[in-house]
Design goal:
Mean pLDDT: 83
Bound molecules: zinc ion
Low-confidence stretches: 78-83
Length: 220
């Protein structure tokens, strides 16, 4: 069950087309998995459209192009997601991607096996943000860390915990330098997440502190 959602302001900005491309991508992928947020985005999308019509007293606005912009960001609530979804594979396991992440499957680098039963595959999303698919095997954990910038994570499949909360498929988690956490999973099937950060992580305890000078090379 999904317990963590983008906040209302993020959903409104998403509907208006005013989120950064990286944030819009991960909010859109969350909405693919979350009917609750699809409805909120639909509501905001309709009010954006109403505002536009109300403002167009002299008929000068090109509604065709505006409406096509709006429908481009609109998430179809009843889309049969799976029939359009790409599958990514790791070690014989297959994962169905949310529709908004489909195009990323062609921009994925190779999986690399990191310490602590963690696998990572980088994804080129352009811009300054760095995106990765991260898979934690059962018993896997990412060393305790905080964030120099922000870290936005969508749980694609499975469950994990981080000492702050327990997360399930579809959960949207946004953390920053105020949060220190240690993601781990005990789920039998492990956990696949999609994560975007704007600055390298900062490891805060044990041996992992030694790798901070190199943390831009992975988990970045
Ligand atoms: Zn939601």
């Amino acid at each position: 069950m999904i317990n963590f959602h983008p906040n209302n302001q993020q959903l409104a900005l998403f509907a208006e087309g005013n989120l950064s491309p990286a944030e819009a991508l991960i909010v859109s992928a969350h909405c693919d998995m979350c009917e609750h947020c699809q409805r909120i985005v639909q509501f905001h999308t309709e009010s954006v459209a109403e505002d536009l019509f109300a403002d167009d007293a002299d008929g000068s606005i090109d509604f065709d192009s505006m409406m096509s912009e709006i429908t481009n960001i609109h998430v179809e609530p009843n889309q049969p997601a799976k029939s359009y979804s790409k599958i990514i594979e790791l070690d014989g396991k297959e994962f169905v991607l949310p529709r908004s992440l489909n195009r990323l499957s062609s921009k994925m680098g190779n999986w690399s096996h990191l310490v602590g039963k963690i696998w990572q595959a980088p994804v080129d999303i352009g811009g300054v943000n760095v995106a990765n698919f991260i898979y934690m095997e059962k018993g896997g954990s990412v060393p305790e860390h905080t964030h120099r910038g922000s870290e936005t994570t969508l749980v694609i499949n499975g469950e994990f915990s981080d000492g702050i909360a327990d997360y399930d498929s579809g959960d949207f988690i946004q953390l920053n330098g105020n949060h220190t956490h240690t993601p781990f999973t005990q789920a039998q099937e492990g956990c696949l997440v999609f994560s975007i950060v704007d600055k390298p992580l900062y490891f805060t305890s044990g041996w992992a502190r030694l790798i901070n000078p190199f943390s831009h090379l992975f988990f970045k």
